Each structure stands twice: as C-alpha cells, then as structure tokens.
Amino acid sequence: MKKKVKTIICIAYLVVMFSLIVHLLEQPFDIFHRFAWVLIGFYVCDLIDVTYKENRLIQALAITFGFYSLYQAWLNLYTMLTIPSFLSMIFTICLLARLLLCFVPWKQWKKTKYRGYTLLRNLPLFGMGVVLELLFIESGNMNSYGLWLMEIFIPLLFVFFELEDLQLKRPTIWMVGSWISHLGLALMFLQMIGQI
Q1: Residue 135: which of 54, 78, 176 has the closest Cα?
Q2: What is the pLDDT of residues 84-137, one digit of tens each?
Q3: Percent composition of the chain: helix, strand, coil (DSSP 3-state, to 5)
Q4: 188 with 149: CB under 8 angstroms?
Q5: Is 45 exposed, middle or buried (0-12, 13-18, 19+ CB in 10 A)?
Q6: Ranges of each domain in the chain
Q7: How far apart are CA 68 and CA 158, in angstroms?
Q8: Which of 139, 149, 162, 176 registers the highest number of CB atoms within 10 A of its CB?
Q9: Where are the transmembrane segments (predicted)?
Q10: 195, 192, 175: which is closest to 42 by C-alpha?
Q11: If pLDDT is split at 50, 70 and 90, which confidence band does 194 have?
Q12: Smallest Cα–Cα separation from 153: which of 172, 128, 136?
C-alpha cells in the first residue's frame, strides 16, 4: 500500500512539474524560458530519482545545471545591478570544481562509506548556493517580482539534496521535502507572469 501511495505521489509531482515548465515555455518573454530551463534541471534530477535511484551522477549534474541557470537568470533579469567581480569569480571557480568532482571518482558514487568524499563533492555546490543567496538578497523584491523568496528556496534545495546524497535514514522524507521546494520554486516563477 505504501509503495502504491508513493508511486501516485511521484506521478502527480512529475505531471505538475511538467505542466508548469510547459506553461513557462509558452510565455512570450525570454526570462520565463530561462526559468523553465532552471526547472527542467531540477525536474530531470527528480525524474532520474524516481526511475533509477542509484544514478547520483545525473542527479548531481542536474542540480549543478539548475544552480548555474539560476545564476544566469539573475544576470539577465537584474541588468540594472552589477555583480561584484569577486562573487562572479567565486561562482565560476565553484562551478568548475563541482563539475570536476562530479566525475572523479565514479566508483565511489554508490557507496555510503564514502560520505567524506560526498561532502567534499558538495562543498563547491554550497559555494554556488551562497553566491546565489547573496545575489537574490541584493535584488530583494525589486520590480515586485516576488523573487525575494529565492532566499528561502535556495537553502532548502541544497539541504534536501545534501540529505538525499548522504543517503541518511528516512530518504523518502528528504525526497518529498525536495519536491515541495521545487514546486514552490515553480509556482514563484509562475506568479511573475503577472508582473512582467
């Protein structure tokens, strides 16, 4: 019974995410298309988790792509603001380090005893998240987009991904928490449609 309920929840989540992404892609403004790509990154991550839970590499690349897309979306949305050069440099270094650690070494991905390496691999992702947090704090609720909520969603996305990645007890709870944060992110982007 528990497995059936979980399957129903998974299907409902994936359908809702897909619908939200399609809705964003149908909008005339390029900024919504960029945010749709952000959601696609997280959507792919969760789709892999539902269909093939062992493939942490693809999940890691998906969330890395999602964080990078959020960074690019901020740059394109808040052109009136200038990102400090040191923050841009930190983000780039963290992105490159993250991609490198995602591919080396492959055989340690499926072993829970390598939690130290898992933490090391997620350290650059944490750095990317900190930069994103600072950027969205700086932009605040500029133009009434409502993107100040990113200050809440970015930490949630990282925390739930980290808990899943470490393969701690009660992984289903972490997965559901991750889904809620992804859906909140999607709904926040949709409410921007009436603002832009």
Answers
A1: 78
A2: 899 999 999 999 999 998 887 655 555 555 667 778 888 999 999 999 999 988
A3: 85, 0, 15
A4: yes
A5: buried
A6: 1-194
A7: 13
A8: 139
A9: 7-25, 31-50, 57-74, 86-106, 118-137, 143-161, 173-193
A10: 175
A11: low
A12: 136
User: Residues 27, 33: contact at Cβ < 8 Å?
Assistant: yes
Give the count of beta carbons closer than 10 Å to the beta carbon of residue 68: 20
Collect all residues with Cβ–Cβ distance below 8 Å to 89 and sequence separation of at least 6: none
Looking at residue 21, its amino acid is I
- With contact defined as beta carbons under 8 Å apart, do 87 and 38 qualify? no
Residues 147/139, Cβ–Cβ less than 8 Å:
yes
**Among candidates 187, 190, 181, which has minimal Cα distance to 63?**
181
C-alpha 75: how far from its chain's center? 17
The first and second tokens of residue 107, run together, are 């055989």
d(CA 196, CA 11): 31
Cβ distance 16 to 10 under 8 Å? no
Whole-model pTM: value is 0.76
- Tell me the one-letter amino acid at 173: I
Other beta carbons within 10 Å of 1: 5
